[in-house]
Design goal:
The complex is a heterodimer of chains A (388) and B (315). Chain A is an alpha/beta fold. Chain A is built from twelve helices and 16 strands. Chain B contains twelve helices and ten strands. Classes of the chains: A alpha/beta (388), B alpha/beta (315).
Chain lengths: 388, 315
């Protein structure tokens, strides 16, 4: 089996991580751009490279339903999806979080219909932002692999016990090959460890009723407990990241601050377009501009403190959203604004890349020009074809 | 074959579903659940769809269940069961579990015939080994008696009320057992809570099947059908004797009657005890009753043909 450094797509990197984790159960339904993850993994199972029970369910709703049943029964469970698939499973995503099922989900981010579109944006992630699950965004295939290896450890921490979504931009990461360094199997196995939930359904010595009916006298407390768990996940992500760095030398993070030390202006976003922004930041730095990037890696739980710490001294900050919140301000902007409330940072809002439209360096240069111009333009679309 | 003493002995120990739950007086569901679970030798794991049974037995922080029980949502009980059953096989394969367990799913007719049909079909096609029990009380009773595709022709519900221009539900109920049979699963049974012996035997055979098993079990509902609570078993018996609800099983695709009613009992004997059919008797016009009888007779003949019997065999 593949170890060491290889040329892999983000989807293939996820499949290799899954083989190394060797989950007990993988219930999954195909959807573009997630398909290469499950196709590659299905072949690994067929070749006996891992012992997972693969269940080809008849919908994503059933994929997540089976995943909840399996994870709570006492079996490590992973699934994967995109876009409409996530929309269909969304009902059960909320319940998975509420039932504290530590399911790991690989998400190939894709635009939501309509119009139907198979390409990347973050609207699917935003659909479940308040579901109570963790969402970790990868910039590259390497980071998607690292996050997948870390995800079971974070999900299964006894003070967390929540689903963890490992998100990567559809096609930009899922289908683009780049060098990925895989850990040896004998390193992944002890790192991931044994699966444990506190009350497995199969425990006949401690019989449990799971998923009971909660009336107004208890529902509120259940939801508060969920909030405490996802708040605890901030520490869990940081701890597991430290442990993984010992093994890989690479760091997964809550936020990545790129050339921000002495910056006066910054650009904030999620996911793969950070690569393009980093190139433009480098170019602007050569020209003497004091600009940097803040990439939010952990979108849920939202790292308010880390963001405030990184950005509070800035003059102007542009937040780039790859999703709309029609009728309101874009989702990442509003949350960054809330993190910075009370500071003197000027915020600008941009929406880019909907339905797989690329973000080009000239778009990022335009954003920086806006940040320095001090003009009245406070928001806009990047790469939109305006009608003349 | 379980005897009544065996079932009673199991109830005297730790009953799988204990009393104290909030199901209505006269509800058929708990009797069906206990008969089925008491008939299965191995420890059971229960997967429950949203519905009366779930709501009335698990109000937090109480539970009426003494067996492991899980509920996730309304339409996905068969999918949850798929995951639970796969986890069981995965853990057995890896030597992390030794016990032999039987998985029993309970869903109402709404959660089975309607919103859960896709998940059920997927699970049956994949061959997960579980017993899926539809406790069929012929409407969405938990939400206040709305029509489902199990509601019989001409019954009134809150969404198919009778009126000057309407006589209740205009459509025939769906043949869910035939849909289950079409998946090529090893065991399908139609039973009624009112015949505990037949139900118990079917539960045993369903649990022993080497693959998915489906049981469609008629449950009365005093609230939804509009009958006195004490009449539940009698109504179930009348449903069987009028041939509205024949008792049969389908083993590896072969139909077999498990009970042959001795004489023809007219359908109005069953209809007349239920308020949901009261509008059919409001005046002298019995044409809808005759239409229901015609449909019951036609269904019965088709069933006999499937069982390789003729009408002559049933007289």
């Amino acid at each position: 089996m593949l170890t060491g450094t290889s040329l892999l797509t983000g989807a293939e990197a996820v499949a290799h991580a899954m083989r190394q984790i060797d989950p007990d159960v993988v219930p999954v339904y195909p959807i573009t751009p997630q398909t290469p993850m499950v196709e590659a993994f299905a072949k690994m199972v067929a070749d006996g490279a891992c012992r997972t029970e693969l269940v080809n369910v008849e919908s994503e709703h059933s994929a997540m339903s089976a995943a909840v049943g399996s994870a709570l029964a006492g079996a490590r469970t992973i699934t994967a999806t995109s876009s409409q698939g996530l929309a269909l499973m969304a009902e059960v995503v909320y319940i998975a979080a509420a039932m504290r099922a530590p399911v790991v989900v690989a998400l190939g981010n894709r635009a939501l219909s309509g119009p139907i579109n198979i390409h990347g944006d973050h609207s699917d992630s935003m659909l479940i932002r308040d579901s109570g699950v963790l969402q970790l965004f990868a910039e590259s295939a390497q980071e998607a692999y690292d996050l997948m290896i870390a995800a079971p450890r974070i999900a299964e921490r006894q003070d967390v016990l929540l689903p963890v979504f490992v998100c990567q931009d559809g096609f930009t990461v899922t289908h683009s090959a780049e060098p990925v360094e895989l850990l040896p199997d004998e390193v992944v196995d002890p790192f991931v460890g044994d699966y444990r939930v506190p009350y497995p359904l199969f425990d006949l010595d401690r019989i449990t009723t799971q998923g009971p009916f909660a009336m107004p006298d208890s529902y509120f407390e259940h939801k508060r407990d969920q909030e405490l768990a996802i708040e605890a996940a901030i520490l869990a992500v940081a701890d597991v990241a430290d442990e993984l760095r010992e093994l890989t030398g690479r760091k997964i993070r809550l936020v990545e601050a790129y050339r921000l030390e002495d910056a006066e202006r910054a650009i904030v976003l999620l996911g793969a377009s950070a690569g393009t922004v980093k190139d433009v930041v480098d170019e602007l730095r050569v020209a003497g501009e004091r600009v940097g990037l803040l990439r939010i890696c952990c979108y849920r739980p939202f790292p308010n403190e880390e963001i405030r710490l990184a950005l509070a001294g800035m003059r102007t900050v542009a937040v780039l959203d790859r999703a709309l919140a029609p009728g309101a301000r874009p989702p990442l902007l509003t949350e960054v604004a809330a993190s910075l409330y009370g500071s003197r940072v000027m915020l600008r809002s941009y929406v880019y890349g909907l339905g797989g439209r690329d973000l080009f360096p000239q778009d990022v240069r335009r954003v920086y020009a806006d940040l320095t111009a001090g003009g009245s333009r406070r928001s806009g679309y990047l790469g939109l074809k305006e009608s003349s | 074959m379980a005897r009544i003493k065996t079932l009673a002995a199991r109830e005297r120990g730790v009953p799988p579903l204990r009393g104290g739950h909030a199901l209505c007086q006269g509800c058929g569901a708990p009797m069906i659940v206990r008969t089925i679970l008491d008939s299965i030798e191995t420890p059971t794991i229960v997967i429950n769809a949203t519905g009366c049974l779930e709501v009335a037995t698990t109000r937090y922080p109480t539970t009426a269940w003494n067996v492991p029980w899980i509920h996730v949502a309304f339409e996905n009980a068969a999918a949850v069961a798929s995951g639970v059953e796969t986890a069981y096989r995965a853990l057995h394969k890896r030597g992390r579990l030794d016990e032999t367990l039987t998985f029993v799913v309970f869903g109402g007719d709404g959660g089975t015939y309607d919103i859960g049909l896709q998940a059920l079909s997927g699970a049956l096609e994949r061959g997960h080994r579980f017993v899926y029990v539809c406790y069929d009380n012929e409407a969405y009773m938990n939400t206040g008696i709305q029509r489902s595709s199990a509601t019989p022709f001409a019954a009134t519900t809150t969404t198919t009320p009778a009126g000057s221009q309407a006589f209740g539900k205009a459509q025939q109920r769906k043949d869910i057992a035939a849909i289950a049979v079409a998946h090529g699963i090893p065991y399908v049974g139609q039973a009624a809570g009112a015949d505990w012996q037949d139900l118990s035997e079917k539960a045993e055979r369903a649990a022993a099947a080497e693959g998915p098993a489906f049981l469609n079990v008629l449950s009365d509902c005093p609230l939804g059908w509009g009958h006195e609570a004490r009449l539940g078993p009698r109504l179930g018996r009348l449903a069987i004797e009028t041939r509205f609800w024949p008792l049969y099983e389908v083993v590896d695709g072969w139909y077999r009657l498990t009970y042959m009613p001795r004489k023809h009992v007219p359908i109005e004997e069953w209809l007349g005890l239920q308020k949901r059919f009261a509008h059919l008797f409001a005046n002298d016009d019995r044409s809808l009753v005759a239409e229901i009888q015609r449909r019951v007779d036609a269904d019965w003949e088709r069933l006999l043909a499937r069982c390789a019997l003729s009408t002559a065999d049933s007289r």
